[in-house]
Design goal:
Elements lengths: L13 H4 L1 H13 L4 E6 L6 H15 L3 E6 L4 H14 L8 H17 L7 E5 L16 E5 L8 H11 L4 E4 L12 E3 L16 H10 L8 E5 L8 H12 L5 E6 L8 H8 L7 E5 L3 H10 L2 E4 L8 H8 L4 E4 L4 H4 L7 E3 L2 H13 L1 H18 L2 H14 L7 H8 L16
Parallel strand pairs: 1-2, 1-3, 3-4, 4-5, 5-6, 7-8, 7-10, 8-9, 10-11, 11-12
Helix pairs in contact: 3-15, 4-5, 7-10, 8-13, 11-14
The protein binds uridine-5'-diphosphate.
Length: about 425
């Protein structure tokens, strides 16, 4: 089996998913070959959306689906507003002034003016940043809004405002049924997934693991407790440090908080800097864009924490479980759908519970191993990219009845035909 590769094909998944699933996916993809799908998001790196799009678009390509991935551009003001909207969707307060709405909508109009969409059969818009784009195109192909955030308790004011845009879509994809909303489009639930062959998730030699840790000055003379996350308050890094300090009174260990700052997240740097005063010999706080380091840390850690307070899904949990780590995750959002408490990891709701699980797991390597084996199997069965891709294929097929997807006409006639969709901008392009 492959360890890691830049060019993963669906056939590489066969040893993990079996020949029957492989054949099924190949068949579904064959029916949709040459379908031109556009994914639109707001950052190429940092965060789970970029992580998934970089792999899923290439896997789709290898199956003959013409998956494209484009970004919208925005000013710092724009990303300040969209981060507030993101936080409000997860339940935070927001002072949604007319000026903020204007900044948000105006930048999206500018993007619409720049982007010609005539060449696509399906458009998938990720998260709130590009959401209003739909308003500026004449639509003759399906437009899907894919929202990745935890919508369990959205701020009603922001939801009412965004509903105006959401209702224009043909379908909405959410990660979990409990995120469903009072909106017009049909809602489909698709959980995220990982690429098991990427540099972040593939097998790593012990020498490479040691090299990565040494390179960043991470000692492994004592058990490592790690949390890998964007620097974001919802990931509760302060709570992680407090829990670690209490656990450290009972067991020897080193805490590593590894984080990054996504380019569409203006709060990350501030959160990172606010944590630095907690640095000490056994508390390492790092920021690095290094997939091999994420991989090494998740493999070497005795305990991987993901103590989120809200979590749309939590790919870091999936990534760590895939590596057989003992994961302790916040009892919220998508983490609950991955960890079965006490079986393949632990769910925690308080700092006290976190302390207790850290201490227990550090003291019991045999239990860590057992939990880790079950965790890996959970990911193999439920959270691999092949499953995500198959769900996308099913969704595209479901649109065949209502939209004559252009790729079919191409294959029927053997000739390209003009796309029906117009990029005419309603507001004056
Ligand atoms: N990540 C990373 N380096 C870091 C922190 C995070 O590469 O220092 C990656 C992590 O491995 C995962 C993604 O960013 O692939 C985070 O996705 P998740 O769904 O956990 O959270 P999000 O950031 O989307 O809220």
């Amino acid at each position: 089996m492959k360890r890691y590769s830049w060019h993963v094909k669906i056939e590489d998944y066969a040893p993990l998913i079996g020949d029957e699933a492989l054949e099924r996916i190949l068949h579904k993809a064959h029916r949709l070959r040459d379908l031109r799908v556009l994914h639109l998001s707001s950052t190429f790196y940092g965060g789970g959306v970029a992580e998934m799009l970089s792999s899923s678009t290439l896997l789709a390509r290898s199956l003959g689906i013409k998956a494209d991935w484009r970004l919208i551009q925005g000013s710092p003001d724009f990303f300040n507003v969209t981060k507030k909207i993101h936080n409000a969707l997860q339940g935070a307060e927001i002072n949604l002034t007319d000026l903020k709405k204007e900044v948000y909508e105006e930048i999206v109009v500018q993007n619409a003016l720049r982007m010609d969409m005539t060449e696509y059969d399906v458009v998938i818009v990720h998260d709130p940043q590009p959401l209003p784009l739909i308003h500026h195109y004449r639509r003759t192909c399906p437009w899907i809004w894919r929202c990745h955030v935890d919508l369990s308790q959205p701020n009603p004011e922001v939801m009412d405002y965004l509903r105006g845009f959401i209702d224009e879509y043909n379908a909405v994809i959410l990660s979990l049924p409990e995120y469903s909303q009072r909106i017009a489009p049909p809602q489909v639930f698709i959980m995220p997934a990982i690429n098991p062959f990427s540099l972040k998730n593939g097998e790593l030699d012990d020498a490479v693991i040691r090299d990565r840790l040494e390179h960043y000055g991470i000692p492994d003379d004592e058990p490592i407790v790690a949390q890998v996350s964007r620097f974001d308050r919802w990931k509760d890094p302060e709570g992680v440090i407090r829990a670690f300090l209490l656990a450290h009174e009972e067991v020897d260990a080193t805490l590593v908080l590894l984080g990054n700052v996504a380019s569409d997240d203006p709060e990350g740097q501030e959160v990172f800097e606010s944590l630095l005063s907690h640095k000490e010999e056994r508390i390492i706080i790092l920021t690095a864009e290094d997939s091999a380091l994420v991989n090494a840390l998740q493999r070497r850690a005795a305990v991987v924490l993901q103590k989120s307070l809200r979590e749309g899904f939590g790919l870091t949990v999936t990534e760590a479980m895939w590596k057989g780590a003992a994961v302790v995750g916040g009892n919220c959002g998508g983490i609950r759908h991955q960890i079965e408490d006490g079986v393949n990891g632990y769910l925690v709701s308080t700092e006290e519970e976190t302390v207790q699980r850290i201490v227990q797991l550090i003291r019991d390597p045999a239990q860590r191993k057992q939990i880790g084996l079950r965790a890996r199997d959970t990911v193999r069965q439920r959270f691999l990219m092949s499953r995500l891709l198959e769900q996308y294929l099913d969704l595209f097929s479901a649109f065949e009845a209502t939209f004559s997807l252009n790729h079919q006409r191409v294959s029927a006639l053997g000739l390209p035909v003009a796309n029906k969709m117009s990029s005419d901008n309603k507001s004056g392009t």
